[in-house]
Amino acid sequence: MSKILIAYSTVDGQTKKIAETLSENIKGEVVVKRFEEIKDITEFDKIIIGSSIRYGKFPKKLYRFVEKNQKELEERQADFFGVNLIARNPEKCVVENNVYVRKFLDKISWKPNKVQIYAGALNYTTYKLFDKKMIQLIMKMTDGPTNPSVDLEFTDWEKVCEYAEVVNHR
């Protein structure tokens, strides 16, 4: 039976929620951990890396994790999933149309076996004032929702489960 690692970074918890949903739908022994909790990835047969963006950038810890583990990621044909709010538009769920994922892939030398892009969640009621105002501004510029009293989840859970099935058949 395969031993699978889902390594992730999250800001507000949506990437963790996606990683956990994947783990519930993937066959085998699945371990879900934040990057900083992982000591050694060599014990895993398959690896999936997930990360969200904030203010248009993936976190530095994602880049460090990929750089540190590139050899093992290549050997295990590791996958990557990115989580961002522009992916609430279906055309932005494709690498060629998602500027954030495209920039990330251009900056690293590792080439993921498969890349998935999921829309995140907009949790206005949990944001600190600065983040709330900044995200409202970004949403206004991208024709997104700006009502600060509403939380919205844009993740396509069916797409997440479909990807889990792809992993199950490899």
From TrEMBL:
Reactions this protein catalyses: protoporphyrinogen IX + 3 a menaquinone = protoporphyrin IX + 3 a menaquinol; protoporphyrinogen IX + 3 a ubiquinone = protoporphyrin IX + 3 a ubiquinol; protoporphyrinogen IX + 3 a quinone = protoporphyrin IX + 3 a quinol
Comment on bound cofactor: Binds 1 FMN non-covalently per subunit.
Pathway assignment: Porphyrin-containing compound metabolism; protoporphyrin-IX biosynthesis; protoporphyrin-IX from protoporphyrinogen-IX: step 1/1
Main location: membrane
Subcellular location: Cell membrane
Annotated Flavodoxin-like domain residues: 4-170
GO cellular component, one term: plasma membrane
SUPFAM superfamilies reported in the protein's UniProt record: Flavoproteins (SSF52218)
Cofactor: FMN
Keyword terms: Cell membrane, Flavoprotein, FMN, Membrane, Nucleotide-binding, Oxidoreductase, Porphyrin biosynthesis
Bilayer topology annotation: Peripheral membrane protein
Similarity section: Belongs to the HemG family.
Role: Catalyzes the 6-electron oxidation of protoporphyrinogen IX to form protoporphyrin IX; under anaerobic conditions uses menaquinone as an electron acceptor, under aerobic conditions uses ubiquinone as an electron acceptor.
Name of the protein: Protoporphyrinogen IX dehydrogenase [quinone]
Organism annotation: Vagococcus fluvialis bH819
Gene name of this polypeptide: hemG
